[in-house]
Design goal:
By secondary structure, this protein is of the alpha+beta class. It folds into two domains: 97 residues, no CATH class; 85 residues. The protein is built from five helices and nine strands, in the order αβααββββββββαα. The strands form two sheets. Strands 2-8-4-5-6-7-3 form a seven-stranded mixed sheet, with no helix packed on it. Strands 1-9 form a two-stranded antiparallel ribbon. It is elongated and about 65 Å long.
């Protein structure tokens, strides 16, 4: 019963951090914003809308401070060579290992320069898009490890039909996507005004933005 309550609490906390929105709902909201609800006579197709929304999601989530996510894995001895983290990983928050029926912290030890007892991890960036997780210590095979991190949102594309971004950021994504649509019509002035309003509403001060 105790574990069931703990699991339920984790689910409730996760639901407050992010929500699940159908991409089709995002497209409909963008069409309402653009006053182009008929996709047949519209100036942009649904695939166009997905492109605008995906770019907007990437920008807004970055401006909003990234999304808190977690990644669970079971340790294998081959993992001492490194474990590739999800492509949307940006920076680590903390790492825990499940031993003795409880979670214990794994401490950060860059480059493993200081030999110490216990459990230690490092993040090795192979390139700007690929991060590897490395761990050291006396770890048994199949031991659970949880990596909590901050990252960008998963790409919206034909391969997924949901957007997992905090619900309070969705209106900003719609506005930002709409501004990209205006840019596609070469209405750069109107697009810039919307983008600046979005950033002001998000509490981000813009001193100057120069468009190439």
């Amino acid at each position: 019963m105790k574990y069931a309550l703990t699991f339920l609490l984790v689910l409730l906390l996760a639901s407050t951090a992010q929500s699940v929105t159908l991409v089709s709902d995002l497209i409909n909201k963008m069409r309402l914003r653009a006053n182009e609800t008929d996709s047949i006579t519209s100036n942009f197709t649904n695939p166009n809308a997905v492109t605008f929304l995906d770019d907007a999601q990437s920008r807004i989530v970055t401006l909003g401070g990234l999304m808190e996510r977690s990644y669970d894995t079971s340790y294998q001895r081959a993992d001492s060579l490194g474990l590739v983290l999800p492509s949307y990983f940006r920076r680590v928050k903390d790492v825990k290992i499940f031993v003795g029926r409880q979670w214990e912290a794994i401490n950060y030890n860059p480059g493993f320069q200081s030999p110490k007892d216990g459990y230690w991890f490092d993040i090795d960036w192979k390139n700007q898009d690929t991060a590897w997780f490395l761990v050291r210590g006396q770890i048994m095979q199949n031991t659970r490890i949880r990596i909590s991190y901050f990252g960008v949102a998963k790409e919206i594309s034909a391969r997924t039909d949901t957007c997992r971004v905090r619900s309070d950021l969705i209106p900003f994504i719609i506005e930002e996507a709409y501004s990209y649509y205006l840019e596609s019509l070469r209405m750069f002035g109107a697009a810039a005004q919307i983008q600046q309003r979005v950033r002001m509403d998000m509490g981000i001060k813009i001193e100057q933005e120069v468009k190439q």
